[in-house]
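Pair request: fold both.
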Amino acid sequence: MYFILVLIEVYIATVGFAVLINVSPRALNLSGLVGTAGYVSYLGYQALISDNYVAENLVGAFTIGIVGMLAARYKKMPVIVFNIPALVPLVPGGQAYQVMKYIALRQPHVAFSYVMQVVMIAGASNGIFVGRTIYSSGRRSAPLVFDLASDQLSTKVNSEDETSD
């Protein structure tokens, strides 16, 4: 029962943040589901493998990256619409609060340990980029070619690829 309650709270938090940043109403439900999927993988890693907050956030962000790409493709919307709200449940708010508390209490050595936790957890959000890279590597795309005439990158290999009317 507790697990279901946590998932409902994560869904509400994700959708609430999506509303706050003006996400399109047609993407609200799916952004909540993307955030919930990321948090489920976070909790699954925590329960089944290890209680390492950095690795948990990396797995959660990786899941958000993959599921966010699928949601964006399904809704034909930018990926950022789904990824940004979905990251909210993984934000290290508790550790950031502890940093401020120990700075106010003039205990910088304790605050520094929490700062390091915040930095490591925030760095784990790169899991989104890892997931996006792996997802994109499975798709077939034309190679980039540098066109000397225009000094630009192009996906066209030669002029025969162009269609003429």
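--- second member of the pair ---
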Amino acid sequence: MQHPELSYPHHLRRLTLRLLEGETPANLGLKGWQIDDHSIVIGQGDQCYIDAVRRLKSGQVHANARIEVVGTIDKGEIISLKFAGSTSQCEILELIQHPTRSVMVYGTVEGHVEKGEEAFEISLDDNDQVHGRIVAFSQPARWWAWLGNWAVRPTQLWITQRYLEGMIPPGNEEQKASS
């Protein structure tokens, strides 16, 4: 089975990884794209890190934003995201797992309400603090999303905040107040 094409230019593929590393949108040729870069302190310690990564890979992060993930979260797979009566698809471009840093990147495919890419990073720093971060670039892909961007954009930001809060494992909920 052939995968659908990504809905954004090929030369922009995986640029969220470079944004995570600190490169600027301007240096990456992302003029005209909406850029998001949001983070949260998730908690403390190895177990918190492991639990947060498990939440990301199992779809619980998305479920916290009332988005159902259909499919397998694995590199190269196409997943469907169901939200508010609509279904959009993304391709998992990267799934990186290190002892202190995990990253999932997906890009939108044709038919998604937005076009662009989103990276989810969970990291454990030298002070044993666990951080969650989401970096994305996007543009509306459907005509009604362009016209209604005044309503779509706040929804997009709400979803991002819910994703971040969804990274927090049970028992660490006090972190939501400090984000």
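Observation on the second member. The longest helix spans residues 149-166.
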